[in-house]
Each structure stands twice: as C-alpha cells, then as structure tokens.
Amino acid sequence: MKKTALILAALFTGAALSADEAPASSYSITADIPYVSTYVFRGTKLATGSLQPSLKLSSGAAYGGIWYSQPFDNEYGNEIDFYGGYTFAISKSWGLDVGATYYYYPELDTSGGADAGTFEGYVGLTGTITGALTGSVYVYQDFTLKNTTVQGSIGYAVPLDEKLTMNFAATIGGVKVDQGPDYAYYGASLTFPWKISDKATITSGFNYATNDLEGAEDNLFWVNIGFTYAF
After folding, report:
1. How far apart are CA 19 and CA 92, in angstroms?
2. CB atoms inside a 10 Å sphere around CB 182
3. Residue 19: its pLDDT value, please?
4. For residue range 6-29, what is the model confidence (pLDDT) as tens digits?
5. How far apart are CA 157 and CA 168, in angstroms?
6. Please, which residues bridge with residue 139 across strands?
7. Quick count: other Cβ atoms within 10 Å of Cβ 42?
8. How many CA atoms lie within 13 A of 222 on its CB side?
9. Which site in 38, 135, 153, 214 is 20 to 30 Å from 12, CA atoms measured?
C-alpha cells in the first residue's frame, strides 16, 4: 500500500495527539482516489499504471481501512488490503503505532498451493524530529511469508502559499526473506498537496525507488495524482 503510503502521509500531518488532545468521541472518514503510473512496493515494481482508491476510518487514536489496487494492464492482478491499528501517545511529538494488514490477491492462481493473501503485523515509532522535519521507524512481520522488513522514513514540508505545500520524503528499508534472497531498497518522493477546500485536496507528485534485489527491475520512476476528501 500499502502501509508505506500511509506512513509517508502521516509524516506530513504531525505527530500523534496525546490522549488529552484527542476527544474520545471524535471520528473522521477519509476517501482517497489516486492514480500511479507504476505500482511500487518496498522498492520493487508490482504493476504498471494503477488506480488505487482507499477508505480510512479514524476515531481518536484508532484507525482502520481498506485499500485497493486495480492495474490497467491485464497482465497484473488486483489487490485488496484490509488494515487497522492504534497509535499510543508517547509524548506530544511522538507516538507508537501498532497494527496489522491483510493483503488479499483475488486473481492469484492458488492451484499450486500459493496463499491468496498474507497477514502482516507492524509496530513503528513516528513523530516530529524538529520543526517541519518528521520521521518514522517501522518493523513489519509477515506471518504468512515469514518475511521481516525494517523501514525508516523522513519527511519535510514546505508551505508554498495558503493552499499549496511541497512535501519531500525519503525512505530506506531492508527485507529479510524466509525463502529467497534478502534485499535493501531506497526511495524518495516530492509531492504537492493543493487544498481546494477545508475537506478536499488534490495531490500530484514525482517518485523514485531502487533496490539491490538480483533480477528485479530497479531505478524506478513514476508519477502520482489523486483526490482526497475528508468527511
């Protein structure tokens, strides 16, 4: 998504609110409809151009949602992710994010014994380093594939005017694969959220990722554009 996308988005919304700052009865629903020219997950290409709508429900420090990827090229299958988690406030600037994701591949051929989905848990530290500089460190454990991923990200937001912001993010990660070669990946993005109303935002951006996985396509460049609405 997947979870990487959520992390990068969280980098620019500030650290988690403390328990006293988040009303217990508050909730929000966010709908996001982005297009990506290449679907890249943890430094590897999973599909070409794809529409990736999602719906997220948040209530206080708890959240959950559904994310969908529909490639335009029939060579690639679609994907549906279900996720949920809770962010425990450590301080006014930092929080501990704990949750899980189920990755479901409805078009995957399982006749050979492959799983139609995988279940992954995660825990991460996320918050503000200083000023507009934010960061996070996450550990993911896929209990189906028995793979472990460690990922660190930083983000920096620069307001260009009252409605437009320039966001920079960089990511580095490593995957320990149970059955296969381990690999590292790196990425960076430059995105421009344009707030067209109190509830609606249009975001466009440029992205780069690479990996050291032998045989995998690297030096990946892609663009994204999407519409977000908060109810």
Report:
1. 9
2. 13
3. 39
4. 555 555 544 344 434 444 448 999
5. 6
6. 123, 150
7. 23
8. 23
9. 38
The tens digit of pLDDT for each residue in 172-186 reads: 999 999 989 999 999
> 81 and 101 in contact (C-beta within 8 Å)?
yes
Q: Any residues with CB less than 8 A from the CB of 60 and at least 6 apart, and which?
A: 22, 23, 24, 26, 27
Helices (H), 36-159: none
d(CA 213, CA 67): 26
Distance in angstroms (rounded) separating the CA atoms of residues 197 and 195 = 6
Which stretches does DSSP call E strand in the chain? 28-36, 39-41, 44-47, 50-51, 54-59, 62-71, 79-89, 94-104, 117-130, 133-142, 147-159, 165-176, 183-195, 200-211, 220-230
Smallest Cα–Cα separation from 155: which of 137, 138, 172, 135? 135
166's tokens: 């320039």
Place of tokens 């980098």: 11
d(C-alpha 64, C-alpha 102), whole Å: 12
Residue with tokens 């490593």: 174
